[in-house]
Design a protein that fits this description.
Elements (H helix, E strand, L loop, with lengths): L1 H8 L1 E10 L5 E13 L2 E10 L1 H23 L3 E6 L1 H12 L5 H7 L1 H10 L1 E5 L1 H6 L5 H5 L10 H13 L5 E8 L5 E10 L10 E7 L1 H29 L3 H16 L3 E7 L5 E9 L10 E3 L4 H9 L3 E3 L12 H6 L4 E9 L2 E10 L7 H36 L3 E5 L5 E4 L1 H7 L3 H4 L15 H9 L4 E8 L5 E12 L5 E10 L1 H47 L5 H26 L8 E3 L1 H16 L3 E7 L5 E4 L1 H17 L5 E12 L4 E2 L2 E2 L3 E10 L6 H4 L19 H11 L3 E7 L3 E11 L25 E5 L3 H13 L3 E5 L2 H10 L6 E5 L7 H11 L4 E6 L11 H4 L2 E4 L4 H13 L2
Parallel strand pairs: 21-23, 29-30, 29-31, 31-32, 32-33
Antiparallel strand pairs: 1-2, 2-3, 4-5, 4-8, 6-7, 7-8, 9-10, 9-14, 10-11, 12-13, 13-14, 15-16, 15-19, 17-18, 18-19, 20-22, 22-28, 23-26, 24-25, 26-28, 27-28
Helix pairs in contact: 3-5, 4-8, 5-8, 9-10, 9-13, 10-13, 17-18, 17-23, 18-22, 19-20, 20-22, 23-27, 24-25
Length: 894
């Protein structure tokens, strides 16, 4: 065969064939031969080259290629063969165009990176690649690399190109890609140029290792750590904060970070569940705050859903959810494309909600819901704790600030707690009584305290009034209620005592009762005095009329004289009663009490006698008072006489004046005095003193401890009436065998100047001839007084008409209107009083003289009316002579 070829062609070039070696071994070889004429004779020159090694190498390469292909195709890792030569050519052209920094250019120009991606030629991919990227056939992926790229892939791909451009032999990057079905893949990409292609980049091996499971596991771990961190931050905030708002703000911040949300917010509903308020939020810097936004809840779908289901509400896309059609404009305005809202529940009741929003639609996974639930549960727990703590603090504050004393004792009746009110009342500090038995708090004469506490130990509740003692052994009267303290099993574990100090209350109550009693006595006294004045007017008047008709030597004359003297003495007693009941008229002026006492000393020394030492201690710069000097003199005389009578065997009598400032809440002898400045007048003796039973009644009219006939019992009653009429107060301290001190507090006028006493008016000149011929109308409801007045006038020559009341007086006056010269009327009468009657008469005839008589001056209302502007008044009791003088003077006056 070879010879034939050789003869035909003249030569054989590189003919592969097998040859047998000398030892018979068949070897692969390559024959090259040519026919050459040598000296005219054709010769064959043949060269045989042994190809055994070459064939072995080729077979090895084929086996290697086969193995490579087997590995390539069957590798579990996605493998790619890619041609980057066009990319290099593109980059070279950029460099030629003047772009000197190719890496920087690629990092800054994503379009250039996309251009490079489109120039990459995929030579081959293995089956793992088809599986990973969900590609049925290689042709579908070999065509275009960019179809597996995501926007976030290009920055990482740029780093691959830069590494190849810089001729790095091997490098690894991690990037996100996608399958042809759109599923995201987290991949670790290894890039290495094939040997010999480092320069041209015509062949580059790329392996893509699917790290999705690992990445997602890592993301899950990171998310879990974030969740733990979120909850830990909330727990830490709740441990440090006692206010809800900072905790809400921490939760919002952490939720926004974990969910990558544009806004996180907390809403809290009011107690009535009528509205909710956005109390805390965290939002992106580009969004405006809606903190403080109020949401009406009655027709709000979202809160109705939360209340009805007590479960989270998830909205992945508000544009596609028909339930939010009416809210879309508001949601769009606040950049809300999706949201997740979870209720905050305390004790089975929704008190608010918390949630996150995103600007674009978002799918919320189950783990997202679980996380928000966890945060909401944590917030609920925190709120429960804070509110319980706040309630506890309020209870503690109430116990600490309550005005009542509170004592907690253990089952051994030993004190374990007392509140500040207890410390204030008793003077004990908490440390001084804790651990002590409660019996140290009761007065020594309270022998029933143990029985009370034992009754409470048996499960009863005891309440009543007790006498306790302070640290300095002062007696305190308290209302106490003792109750057992029980644990959850209703076992008694201690006792609680609540006490209210009623000492001052009882003092004020006693003061009130005393004031009521004195007021009632005063009213009774004034009424009796008024009636007595009418009776005495008649008795004394008729007695005087009888004396006019009796001869002085007649034995009946002395009897009637005795009647008249007794009546006059009774009239003096009535005047004292009126002083007590404050029914007399005072003429107050600014005066210096020291001057009054000084002026009276000579007279007072005569009153008390030589066996009593009199001492006056008068304060310098004594404040002035406004009072009736005559009545103050009467007070001093009455008190000095009373002190004298308490010193039957002689002794000491003291009169003292001093400035006194009373602070608010000052109480003395059950008497609470208004705060202010007072002048204190004290009259004291070291005489026999008085027991408490006497002190209770000393200011009552007709109460006296003196022997019969030595006292009327009106002296101190008169003092009491005068002092109270001047707006002052009187207290008395007395102890049997030690003496008595009367303290009189009169309101001071520190900066006033004493009034110059007006010159005393001369008593009106007595009219010798009181007879007359005028016509007088006498109006008086007391028959005896009316009859006495009528007879007195008639004896003096007057024409007299009479009436029993105001209405009758008007009628009689109208009948004799032209004849009347004067009307003498009582002030207080039934049907129509004297003032009203007089006004009616003056309307009809203004020239008639109106003359008044009264049992006490408080019956008369002084005003500027025509009647009282010229009023003339005769006080009862009066005699016929006084009456005739009064009327004659009234008739003769202009």
């Amino acid at each position: 065969y070879m010879a034939k070829i050789l003869l035909t062609r003249g030569e054989i070039r590189s003919l592969a064939s097998q040859f047998r070696a000398k030892d018979g071994t068949i070897i692969d070889g390559e024959l090259s031969a040519r026919v050459l004429p040598i000296q005219g004779t054709p010769h064959i020159i043949a060269i045989v080259r042994d190809l055994s090694y070459l064939r072995q190498t080729e077979r090895a390469l084929r086996e290697s290629e086969k193995r490579y292909r087997n590995i390539f195709e069957n590798s579990p890792v996605s493998l790619w063969e890619e041609d980057f030569s066009a990319v290099k050519a593109y980059l070279t052209s950029l460099e030629a165009d003047g772009i000197t920094d190719i890496p920087a250019y690629l990092r800054e120009n994503v379009d250039a990176v996309k251009k490079c991606a489109s120039l990459v030629k995929i030579l081959d991919v293995n089956r793992a690649t088809l599986s990973l990227f969900a590609v049925p056939k290689k042709e579908q992926i070999i065509g275009n690399l960019t179809q597996i790229f995501l926007p976030e892939t290009y920055p990482v791909f740029a780093e691959q190109i830069i590494a190849l451009w810089q001729q790095k032999r091997y490098f690894v990057v991690e990037q996100v890609e996608q399958t042809l079905t759109g599923q995201r893949i987290y991949a670790r990409v290894s890039v290495s140029p094939a040997p010999g292609y480092e320069e041209s980049l015509g062949r580059v091996f790329v392996s893509v290792q699917d790290m999705t499971v690992q990445v997602r596991a890592q993301q899950a771990i990171q998310k879990h750590n974030q969740e733990l961190s979120l909850l830990n931050h909330i727990i830490a905030a709740s441990a440090l904060e006692t206010d809800e708002t900072p905790i809400f703000e921490t939760a919002c911040h952490e939720l926004a970070q974990v969910f990558n949300a544009s806004r996180a917010a907390v809403f809290i509903a009011d107690e009535a569940m009528t509205s909710a308020t956005l109390v805390a939020e965290y939002h992106d810097s580009g969004l405006s705050s809606i903190r403080g936004w109020h949401i009406p809840l009655q027709r709000n779908f979202i809160f109705r859903y939360l209340v009805a289901h007590q479960a989270p509400l998830l909205v992945g896309d508000i544009e596609k959810d028909a339930r939010f059609a009416e809210y879309r404009s508001w949601l769009r305005k606040h950049h809300i494309g999706a949201f997740m809202l979870c209720p905050i529940i305390i004790n089975g009741r929704i008190i608010g909600a918390m949630g996150v929003t995103t600007e674009i639609p978002r799918y919320f996974a189950a783990q997202d819901v679980n996380l928000l639930w966890s945060v909401a549960d944590q917030i609920s727990s925190v709120l429960t704790r804070i509110r319980l703590s706040a309630e506890h603090q309020r209870l503690v504050a109430a116990v600490e600030q309550i005005g009542e004393s509170l004592i907690i004792a253990d089952t051994d009746i030993r004190i374990v707690y007392v509140n500040p009110a207890f410390e204030k009342v008793t003077g004990y500090t908490r440390h001084e009584v804790v651990g002590e038995s409660v019996n140290i708090l009761y007065s020594a004469d309270d022998t029933n305290w143990r029985e009370r506490w034992h009754a409470v130990a048996a499960g009863q509740v005891w309440q009543g009034q007790v006498v306790t003692k302070t640290k300095d052994n002062a007696r305190v009267i308290e209302d106490e209620m003792i109750s057992p303290l029980r644990d959850r099993n209703q076992e008694i574990v201690g006792f609680v005592s609540v006490r209210r100090d009623i000492t001052r209350e009882l003092e004020l109550e006693n003061q009130y009762h005393q004031a009521q009693k004195m007021d009632a006595i005063g009213r009774l006294t004034s009424g009796v005095a008024h009636d007595f004045n009418n009776v005495l007017t008649a008795i004394n008047g008729f007695a005087e009329l009888m004396l006019r008709r009796l001869d002085p030597d007649d034995w009946e004359h002395s009897m009637v004289t005795g009647i008249l003297k007794s009546g006059q003495r009774a009239a003096g007693l009535v005047r004292q009663l009126l002083l007590f009941s404050r029914k007399t008229t005072a003429n107050p002026r600014v005066m210096d009490l020291n001057t009054t006492v000084t002026d009276m000393q000579k007279m007072l020394r005569r009153v008390i006698g030589e066996n009593i030492e009199f001492n006056a201690n008068l304060a310098a710069d004594l404040w002035h008072i406004k009072a009736d000097p005559a009545q103050i003199e009467q007070v001093i005389v009455n008190l000095v006489v009373n002190a004298r009578d308490a010193l039957p065997n002689g002794g000491h009598l003291f009169v003292q004046t001093v400035n006194q400032t009373i602070e608010p809440g000052y109480i003395r002898h059950d008497l609470e005095m208004p705060a202010g400045k007072y002048v204190l007048l004290s009259v004291a003796d070291d005489g026999v003193g008085m027991p408490p039973s006497v002190l209770e009644h000393i200011f009552e009219p007709f109460f006296t401890t003196k022997e019969k006939g030595k006292g009327t019992g009106l002296g101190l009653a008169t003092v009491y009436g005068i002092i109270h009429q001047h707006g002052g107060f009187i207290t008395v301290d007395s102890e049997v065998g030690q003496g008595t001190t009367f303290n009189i507090y009169l309101p001071a006028i520190p900066d006033a100047t004493p009034d110059v006493p007006a010159p005393r008016e001369k008593p009106p000149r007595e009219i010798t001839d009181v007879s007359g011929t005028e016509t007088i109308l006498v109006v008086e409801d007391e028959i005896a007084v009316r009859e006495m007045a009528v007879r007195g006038f008639q004896q003096a020559g007057y024409t007299v008409y009479s009436a029993a009341n105001g209405l009758e007086g008007v009628s009689v006056a109208e009948e004799y209107l032209d004849r009347l010269d004067a009307v003498l009327t009582d002030v207080v009468m039934p049907k129509l009083n004297g003032k009203a009657m007089a006004e009616e008469i003056i309307k009809k005839r203004a020239s008639i003289k109106i003359l008044f008589m009264s049992g006490y001056l408080s019956d008369v209302v002084f005003d500027d009316s025509a009647v009282f502007g010229k009023m003339k008044l005769l006080e009862k009791p009066f005699s016929p002579a006084d009456l005739l003088q009064f009327v004659r003077r009234g008739l003769d006056s202009p």
